[in-house]
Specification:
The protein is about 45% helix and about 15% strand. The protein is α/β, with parallel strands linked by helices. The chain has 2 domains: about 110 residues, 3-Layer(aba) Sandwich (Rossmann fold); about 35 residues, no CATH class. The chain has a 3-stranded parallel β-sheet with strand order 1-2-3. Strands 4-5 form a two-stranded antiparallel ribbon. This is ABC transporter domain-containing protein.
């Protein structure tokens, strides 16, 4: 069970950050929780998140979009094989959303990413398979192309 937990990455809907830790300290902390202690990986995540200039900033000083980015980075750190992202782009401006999509596309190789979103364009772009739920029940599931062919754009 411990091995399974180490291979999981989680980005909850609401950021779970410590106000007085810096961006770098957050990533180091969560890398160590995953028993992944390579500072180069922390630096790589900071770079792909485009947070180099904020690496020493305390999380309480970050904008909402930057906090979301950091939470996504925490989910990706430690080479997690299964990454669960609950509305990862919520609260981001359109350009930050697009950058996050690019980041996730670049990081999905060798991983299973389970993502919840209210944005159909996001699901279409990022999803290999999409499940649509309403009222807590599964309504349909399939590839973006299958769903478009069946239900129209």
């Amino acid at each position: 069970m411990a091995l399974i937990r180490r291979s999981l990455g989680l980005c909850p809907q609401h950021d779970v950050l410590f106000d007085n830790l810096t961006v770098r300290e957050h990533l180091l902390f969560y890398a160590q929780v995953s028993h992944y202690k390579i500072p180069d990986e922390v630096d790589r995540i900071i770079r792909i998140l485009n947070l180099e200039d904020k690496r020493q900033a305390r999380s309480k000083t970050l904008s909402g979009g930057m906090k979301r980015k950091l939470s996504i980075g925490i989910a990706l750190i430690g080479d997690s094989k299964v990454v669960m992202l609950d509305e990862p782009t919520s609260g981001m401006d359109p350009s930050a959303r697009r950058a996050t999509w690019d980041l996730l596309q670049g990081e999905k190789r060798g991983r299973t990413i389970l993502l919840t979103t209210h944005f159909m364009d996001e699901a279409d772009l990022l999803g290999d398979r999409i499940a649509i739920m309403a009222g807590g029940e599964l309504q349909c599931c399939g590839s973006p192309l299958f769903l478009k062919n069946k239900y129209g754009e």
